[in-house]
Amino acid sequence: MTKKSRAWLVFLIFINGYISLSLELLVLRNIGFWVGSSAVVTSIVMGTFLGFMSLGYFMGSSPKVSDEKIKSVLSYSFVVIAIFGFLAATFPLVTNYFGTLYQLGVSSNVIQTAIYAIIFLSVAPFLFGFNTTLLSRCLHKYNTNYTGNIMAWDTIGSVIGSLLTTLILMPFLGVNNTVILVVALAIFSAIISRPKWYVGMAGIVLIGTTAYFNSDYYQHKTYGIIVNNANSTISVQDTNGFKILNMNGLPMSVYDSRRNTSAEYIEYINQVYLYTIPRDRVHKVLVLGAGGFTAGLDDDFNEYTFVDIEHTLQEVSEKYFLNRTLSPNKHFVVADASQFLKNTPELYDVILLDVYSNSYQVPEGLITAEFMERIKSRVAPNGIIIMNVITSLTFADKYTRVFDNTFHTVFPYNTQRQVINYANPWAGDDVVNVLYIYYNRENSGRIYTIDKTPVIYDKKIITNSYFQQQNPN
């Protein structure tokens, strides 16, 4: 074995490790918004990956694969990896997969992830392990003590794949273009393993197909995708001025430019809580989950701070969604909501938490009592906290009941549960927008009992202005 041959084999081990980690991260990124990024989801993906990779290690040592066939087997193996890399990580295909499952009534995140893992994450990981064993067999012919070097280069490839994919490629090149790169590397490895014309032709077809379905042109034309980076895939649908801002395939915000109106719950919040803020001073409003910046859109007096982890949201909203520049009193901070609350010293008169805006996936770290305590610590005296939640009107599911329990554990007094949309409480489907509202006022927790009912001292006198509001004529 020549020195050049050994170098190519080591390079293939490095690339094999690089592709494996890159593909795993691409998969976690693309399925994250559908099924979340909880420990359960991550463990299913990682467990499937490692399990089938281990099986590949065993099968690669089988004597049925003769030394003479290793190059051919490696070549075919990398081609198949390219195929499954395309299928598993291409955003339109992932979107269609989860959309189909929801239409079929499969709504459990665990079941969705498990089915996805078995279909798309079994073959490629198996071949990653299989390839590593075959390449090791070749290198052991040169030096039986080469095991440490093999493990090192495989690990180095995985480390570089992990860091490069998450820190540079997805944020700056885009998720879709990173998928193209991974498929191209697999095809390149196939050609190196066996430089035959038919391998090159198969590679051209695969790279061309991957490039087309992951191209900015196709994704913008078919899905209206404007941004596709490490955090989000963002698109804007425009139907005669009625616009929907989608993030990762799900609607996050709506805006009717003809009527200057937005989602029903945002209109309610604007009209009841934001546009009625007294102008005796500048009040501070914090919006966690910027969406399309429709909260307080026409308020140019009070000070708004919008917090979101997606750094492109303001540019996308101003250019494609709102078609207007935010007023100078609106400030956008790119940060994680929990970390922002932990680090800011400010107290806010109104805090709007709008991160639970779809029923497919809930950010699990933001529904805990600990997170709600963090929000509570940032509301000013006499301030208001508003949380928009997609949940059951009638507490028909466990999530609704447990969320309600969690909320009232942190906010036991001065709360309101405001249902926005119409729903039939007797129907099976009663999922609606519900606003959980807390008013930060002193409350001793005192109650009325049969022997202590000093209502006349507690109750405010009903003024004439109240009756005038109820009977303007």
Task: Summarize the structure in words.
This protein is of the alpha/beta class and 473 residues long. It has 2 domains: 221 residues, Up-down Bundle (Growth Hormone, Chain: A); 210 residues, Vaccinia Virus protein VP39 (Rossmann fold, 3-Layer(aba) Sandwich), CATH 3.40.50. Helix content is 53%, strand content 17%. The strands form 2 sheets. A 7-stranded mixed sheet has the order 8-7-6-9-10-12-11, sandwiched between helices. A 5-stranded antiparallel sheet has the order 1-2-3-4-5. The protein starts with a helix and ends with a helix.
Query: CATH class of the largest domain, please?
Result: Mainly Alpha
Low-confidence stretches: none
Mean pLDDT: 89
* Computed CA radius of gyration, to the nearest angstrom: 28 Å
Give a count of the beta strands, DSSP E runs of length 2 or more: 12
* Largest beta-sheet details: 7 strands, mixed
Domain module count: 2
Count of helices? Answer: 17
Percentage of residues in strands = 15-25%
Main sheet: which strands, in order across?
Answer: 8-7-6-9-10-12-11
Shape: elongated
By CATH, the architecture of the largest domain is named: Up-down Bundle
* Helix content estimate: 40-55%
SSE arrangement, N to C? HHHHHHHHHHEEEEEHEEHEHEHEHEEHH
- Structural category: alpha/beta
